[in-house]
Design brief:
- The chain is an alpha/beta fold.
- It has a single domain, classed as Uracil-DNA glycosylase-like domain (Uracil-DNA Glycosylase, subunit E, 3-Layer(aba) Sandwich), CATH 3.40.470.
- 38% of the residues lie in helices and 15% in strands.
- A hairpin with a 6-residue loop joins β7 and β8.
- The radius of gyration is 17 Å and the shape is globular.
- The relative contact order is 0.16.
């Protein structure tokens, strides 16, 4: 398959989530397919009213082919539970569908995707959003937030706030769960986890269709 600058031409004419996932398996819209084990497409309920978007799959996601199943994914699941959200009723995906990494000894270390890679992968994300039609979209981390809300958006300043957007009735950004794992000590990690859960708890009125001012 020739290298493409965007995945747009790969989107099926009458897409469904299974059809998108199948088409994305062969995506070569950027060079990340050369080093990633496989495409890691989104996963979850077709009728989800909350759609979570992270940056990219990590090492374990790359190996299993499923999003948010590594250490950050386990923390994410715990936080959803503490916030009263059933992950089975959500949809989770990433801005970039291949794992970008660099070697460090025998380990594969996460490397931030660049603007070209994010743009190449964007048609997949837009197709997922269009099919799921979530009531709420939550961007997890700076890369996802800036991809959705523009390069000037700062999670540090606007985390936990509902942002006006055409993407969904309610859009919010918060930290990526991996940032909590990188906290320098147990106490900081505990506090950051609690803040993350508090952000997720704000989704309850939006999920119920209430008007949030």
């Amino acid at each position: 398959m020739p290298l493409k600058s965007s995945a747009e031409d790969l989107i099926p004419p009458r897409p469904t989530l299974p059809a998108l996932k199948s088409a994305a398996a062969d995506c070569q819209a950027c060079d990340l397919w050369k080093t990633g084990t496989q495409t890691v497409f989104g996963d979850g309920s077709r009728r989800a009213n909350v759609l979570f978007i992270g940056e990219q799959p990590g090492n374990e996601e790359d190996l299993t082919g499923k999003p948010f199943v590594g250490p950050a994914g386990k923390l994410f699941d715990n936080a959803l539970g503490d916030a009263g959200i059933d992950r089975k009723q959500t949809y989770v995906t990433n801005v970039v569908k291949h794992f970008k990494w660099e070697p460090r000894g025998k380990r594969r270390i996460h490397k931030k995707p660049n603007a070209v890679e994010i743009a190449a992968c964007r048609p997949w994300l837009e197709a997922e959003i269009a099919l799921v039609k979530p009531e709420v979209i939550v961007a997890l981390g700076a890369t996802a937030a800036q991809a959705l809300l523009g390069p000037k958006f700062r999670v540090t300043k606007q985390r936990g706030e509902f942002i006006e957007s055409t993407l969904a009735p309610y859009v919010m950004a918060t930290v990526h769960p991996s940032s909590i794992l990188r906290a320098p000590d147990d106490e900081t990690r505990r506090l950051e986890y609690r803040r993350f859960v508090d952000d997720l708890k704000k989704l309850a009125p939006a999920r119920a269709g209430a008007v949030i001012k």
